[in-house]
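I am hoping you can look over what I have pasted underneath with an eye to the fold:
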Amino acid sequence: MSSTAVSILDHLDKVAVLSAGLFAGTALYMTIGEVPAMRAIGGDIQWRFFPYMYERAAVS
């Protein structure tokens, strides 16, 4: 195996931990902040914002 491949594999665990941390942070934000806020504003207003949220979240 080349030294470049070994170097990449040595840092793969750090990339995995960083990715898991970002995922967990996003899930926590949605659980604590976004979902309760959307529930508080009511269904009619939620439908007004849904197309914009969907457009930003959809894979292009």
Q: What stands out?
A: The chain is about 90% helix and 0% strand.
